[in-house]
Amino acid sequence: MEILCLSNGHGEDAIAVRILEQLQSLPHPPKLAALPLVGEGKAYQELNIPIIGPVMGMPSGGFIYMDGRQLWQDVKGGLLQLTLAQYRAVRQWVKEKSGLILAVGDIVPLLFARLTGANYAFVGTAKSEYYLRDETGWLAKTSPIERLQGSVYLPWERFLLQPPQCRAIFPRDPLTCHILQKYLFPAYDLGNPMMDGIVAKYSLNSIDTLTILLLPGSRNPEAQRNWAKILETTKPISEKINSSVVFLGAIASSLPLEPFYTLLYQQGWQSQPLNSVISPITDPQAQAFTRENATLILTQNAYPDCLLTANLAIAMAGTATEQFVGLGKPVITLPGEGPQFTYAFAEAQTRLLGESVILVEQPTKVADTIQILLTDIPRMKLIFENGLRRMGKPGAAARIAQNLGDILTRGNFC
Q: How many domains does the chain divide into?
């Protein structure tokens, strides 16, 4: 029994690896291989999963859907040649192994799987019916054409989801699963692997020290631009909130810290010894800063602690925002310059995650939004319930792995 995992992005790689880890723990684990269609696949390398074809980092970092200019940069960087070589590698694997393909992400790995003629399963990370509707019906912004199409999965995408070649579909939320099942697709509501290992522990009690998570994203130079914009919100918040404030800056481990320090100094933050401040996270390598009544802790090693201890987040990020929402907590987001976090991306995120995400167009207005939010306990309760409903419970990767194991057992993929 063998499985080839195809994914197309850093976040998709991380989700795929969670599932592959669970596959490795099955009583009779399949042999695993992978091909990341975007980036170098470091997550697979860390799990010692062999990569069967060529990989390459592209200028866009995988965000070609956000900006046509990014696509052109990728084409000049060798995207077409890389894609052709990767497709040949997948076809060769199918010819030699006759195994099951696990496509993780969107239409690109799904199309690869379909064209090879292999049997495949699909983990749909990119699309959700919440972009178009919620449990009560269509959203007001949904166009007549979108309603006529009937699903966030377009007709040609639904063609790729048809059995028997497509053996299983694992959507990211129950609403999307329900709509796909109406089309008689083999969709299973097993949860969202994005929430694995993260347990919701949120209290609606009064807050003595307000802890705010700052999430600028993980791709430079965009993350630095986002960080500068997020930092504009911190002074008004410190001035208007009637409690001490702790900001937690969660910076991706792949990014250099010096530009983030520089922007802090430019806005009046002063470096302090870590042991001179009270930190809600455990990271001896974290850096502490203070300004008036506020403390800011900068960390690259305590992301889970940041998620669990913060009361709310100011975010210009994708996956990290979704995980924070999945804990039942509110996120305030600001539109950026892109290529990922544009106004269109931020607006779409508010549809995907509902009332848990509040789009504020100007940094100076964030403090007022937080003041209103913290005094509205019924709204905070709705946000808590909404986040858990839209992102699901932990343990999805294990449930998906078990389902894949059953498919392999039934399907003679030897």
A: 2
Which band of pLDDT confidence, cut at 50, 70 and 90, is reported for residue 78? low
Whether 81 is covered by a domain: the verdict is yes
Rounded to an integer, what distance in angstroms lies between the CA atom of residue 164 and that of residue 407? 12
Q: What is the pLDDT of residue 202?
A: 47
Nearest to 202 by CA among 414, 412, 15, 385: 385
pLDDT band at 89 (very low <50, low <70, confident <90, very high): very high
* Location of structure tokens 């109406």: 182
Residue among 113, 94, 92 nearest 168 (CA) = 113
pLDDT, one tens digit per residue, over 97-107 is 889 999 999 99
What mean pLDDT comes out for the span 137-165? 95
Determine, yes or no, domain membership for 201: no
d(CA 47, CA 19): 12
Task: Give residue 413's pLDDT.
Answer: 46
Assess whether 78 and 182 both reside in one domain.
yes
> Which spans in 244-395 are helix H?
258-266, 303-309, 319-326, 343-353, 366-374, 377-391
CA 197 – CA 282 distance, rounded (Å) = 18
Same domain, yes or no, for 269 and 280? yes
**Residue pointed to by tokens 């992301």:** 303
Residue from 88, 129, 81, 126 nearest 108 by CA? 126
Q: Is the peptide bond before 259 cis (omega within 30 degrees of 0)?
A: no
Tell me: the pLDDT tens digits for 215-271? Answer: 999 888 999 999 999 999 999 999 998 778 999 999 988 899 999 999 999 999 999
CA torsion, points 365, 209, 355, 213, in degrees to nearest 10?
80
Contact 28, 1 (CB under 8 A): yes
Model-level pTM greater than 0.85?
Answer: yes
Decide: residue 185, CB within 10 A, 0-12 exposed, 13-18 middle, 19+ buried.
Answer: buried
Instruction: Specify whether 120 is located in the same domain as 239.
Output: no
Structural domain containing residue 34: 2-195+394-411
